[in-house]
């Protein structure tokens, strides 16, 4: 589950050890559901979710000033931008097959989840359901520990001042974690719109499009036929 | 340990349940050390660190192109900026008393830790040392789970396009987690330089100074006598 090797071909290549038993349990208890691309996955705080197949996209939305708990941030962020369909949503990352996620709703932000690809299957349970599987519970906690480490690296990328550095760091981290092998190197097996990338790195769709062109012309990224993003193997001479 | 209540006055107010036994064990085994403000804390991947007292500052540094594993990102990021003493370091957050941390060193970034205040005491152990304290192990893992949740919110803040939104979101999250009560609201009990704040939100010292002035003039933040940052209680009417 902690492998960052991009060699894995199958979307279920990082299973929990007791995965099959969990899947059976979830089916028996009607705790599993399959979503189409960009369907919103209904989630509640306090529950644990597991991606069985496909990929989940986490986004953060600011609570608007009209809701019950208006925040300082929301007050300042009323301006929207026409470049982006969901100007207040930030892309926060993927949850791949075999990985857990959970939603918190405190503070000025709410986190939502969407199926990022068709046939994304998610199952869910209460934390106390894990009492039946102490070993599995430990794996879930190890997965959160790993996710925490990855987010530290991501925050490191986000602190860079130049947007092009944030962009390349962002793509590098995603492909390092989820990339699969192709002829030209490693590629992210899912598409991301330039608006989604912009929302992750604090930039706009237009700027992302321009900088992606720049990275392509420097040979630092390659765009595959189906619009997937590929990183060439890093060159030890440079 | 998961309380976000800013009521706690003492720096050791969020102890692990078995905290005293751990401290005794660390002293018996010479696994504890106290640092002065801004001392670098030597850390190695694979070990678990616990903050007994004070506060630890995590920063991310890009591996320069001259090291063994040059990265794509490092190649693009050779430019430095005179505004910032450590232009390649990003502030990644605090680890408060009672909280664990660990260091990963894969990918283009390395993470380092510094004592953020004088008399910061850190103890360390191997993960297998935790086999002696299964309950404590569980608390450590819960702490990482919590940290992961906080980082999701932080990433949500970082995705905002306007620097002033990132700045206010950043301060709000920090004070929500570490803030203490004062007459004017809640304040962050440690100083942060404008360069450090800039490194966290992908901006410059100069811009942070300007935007802090703007937030102050709008009454959204207050600067206390000793240069500590304070947020007034949020106003439910706005």
UniProtKB/TrEMBL annotation, chains A, B:
- List the PROSITE patterns hit by this protein, alphabetically: HTH_CRP_1 (PS00042), HTH_CRP_2 (PS51063)
Record's protein name: Crp/Fnr family transcriptional regulator
Q: Provide the HTH crp-type domain boundaries.
A: 161-234
Q: Which Pfam families does its entry note? A: HTH_Crp_2 (PF13545)
The protein's organism comes out as: Roseofilum halophilum BLCC-M91
What SUPFAM superfamilies does the annotation carry? Winged helix' DNA-binding domain (SSF46785)
Q: Which InterPro entries match?
A: HTH_CRP (IPR012318), Tscrpt_reg_HTH_Crp-type_CS (IPR018335), WH-like_DNA-bd_sf (IPR036388), WH_DNA-bd_sf (IPR036390)
């Amino acid at each position: 589950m902690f492998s960052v090797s991009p060699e894995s071909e199958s979307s279920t290549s990082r299973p929990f050890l007791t995965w099959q038993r969990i899947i059976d349990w979830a089916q028996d208890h009607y705790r599993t559901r399959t979503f189409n691309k960009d369907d919103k996955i209904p989630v509640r705080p306090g529950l644990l979710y597991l991606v069985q197949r496909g990929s989940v996209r986490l986004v953060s939305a600011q609570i608007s000033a009209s809701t019950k708990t208006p925040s300082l941030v929301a007050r300042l962020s009323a301006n929207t931008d026409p470049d982006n369909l969901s100007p207040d949503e930030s892309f926060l990352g993927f949850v791949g097959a075999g990985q857990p996620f959970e939603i918190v709703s405190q503070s000025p932000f709410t986190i939502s989840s969407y199926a990022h690809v068709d046939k994304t299957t998610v199952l869910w349970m209460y934390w106390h359901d894990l009492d039946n599987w102490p070993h599995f519970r430990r794996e879930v906690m190890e997965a959160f520990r790993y996710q925490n480490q990855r987010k530290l690296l991501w925050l490191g990328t986000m602190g860079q001042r130049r947007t092009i550095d944030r962009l390349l760091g962002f793509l590098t981290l995603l492909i390092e974690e989820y990339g699969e092998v192709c002829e030209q190197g490693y590629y992210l097996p899912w598409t991301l719109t330039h608006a989604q990338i912009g929302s992750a790195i604090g930039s706009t769709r237009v700027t992302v499009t321009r900088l992606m062109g720049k990275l392509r012309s420097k040979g630092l990224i390659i765009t595959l036929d189906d619009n997937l993003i590929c990183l060439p193997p890093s060159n030890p001479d440079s």
